[in-house]
């Protein structure tokens, strides 16, 4: 099932339906705080690797060559330097289960194929009109979660009420106090 836990990031702080909070952490494998401004990203060694995409923002990676197997996470920022989203890249193939990105999720547009055994997913936290704007937002981390805002445009509900209204079903795989819902999209 495609679920809210598929994006291995957590936003915490003053979270509500109109805000994603005031912090960003990578939680897969270990919890690591991520920069939420372009200035902090540059101080932490992140490198601007693209110009501003009107749907996604400006992509930063941990190396000038871009994302890699060693550093598969990219961060998007607005032209004003506010966090705008993330890019997760996956690699490889497994003889028992197939490619890291299941074919049906590639076909449906969740994973974008980059190479022979490489795929990525962009997750946006802001509206397209904020990405290349010279205005800043009062929402520190944005106000939405959209998978592949430049192609698929799959909005993720931010509250249980929104998830239920969209007919998402409640999940049960989280061991912490977080409500998880999924859209019924199967991984396989």
Overview of this protein structure:
The N and C termini lie close together (8 Å). The protein has one domain. The radius of gyration is 16 Å and the shape is globular. 11% of the residues lie in helices and 28% in strands. The protein has 188 residues and is mainly β.
List the helices and strands and how they pair.
Layout: E1 9-10, E2 15-16, E3 19-20, E4 25-26, E5 32-33, H1 38-43, E6 47-48, E7 58-61, E8 73-77, E9 83-91, E10 93-94, E11 98-99, H2 103-107, E12 112-115, E13 118-124, H3 128-131, E14 146-147, E15 154-155, H4 160-165, E16 169-170, E17 181-182
Antiparallel strand pairs: 1-4, 2-3, 4-5, 6-7, 7-8, 8-9, 9-13, 10-11, 12-13, 13-14, 14-15, 16-17
Jot down its keywords.
single chain; 188 residues; mainly beta; 8-stranded antiparallel sheet; 3-stranded antiparallel sheet; 4 helices; disordered N terminus
């Amino acid at each position: 099932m495609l679920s809210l836990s598929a994006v291995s990031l957590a936003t915490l702080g003053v979270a509500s339906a109109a805000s994603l909070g005031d912090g960003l952490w990578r939680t897969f494998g270990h919890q690591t705080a991520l920069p939420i401004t372009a200035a902090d990203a540059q101080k932490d060694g992140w490198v601007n690797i693209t110009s501003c995409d009107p749907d996604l923002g400006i992509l930063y990676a941990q190396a000038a060559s871009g994302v890699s197997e060693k550093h598969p996470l990219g961060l998007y920022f607005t032209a004003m330097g506010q966090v705008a989203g993330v890019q997760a890249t996956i690699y490889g193939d497994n003889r028992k289960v197939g490619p890291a990105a299941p074919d049906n999720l590639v076909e449906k547009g969740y994973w974008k194929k980059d190479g022979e055994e490489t795929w990525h997913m962009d997750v946006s936290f802001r509206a397209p009109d904020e990405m290349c704007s010279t205005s800043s937002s009062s929402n520190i981390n944005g106000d939405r979660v959209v998978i592949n805002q430049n192609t698929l445009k799959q909005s993720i509900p931010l509250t249980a009420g929104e998830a239920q209204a969209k007919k998402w079903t409640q999940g049960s795989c989280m061991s912490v106090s977080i409500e998880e819902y999924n859209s019924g999209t199967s991984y396989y």
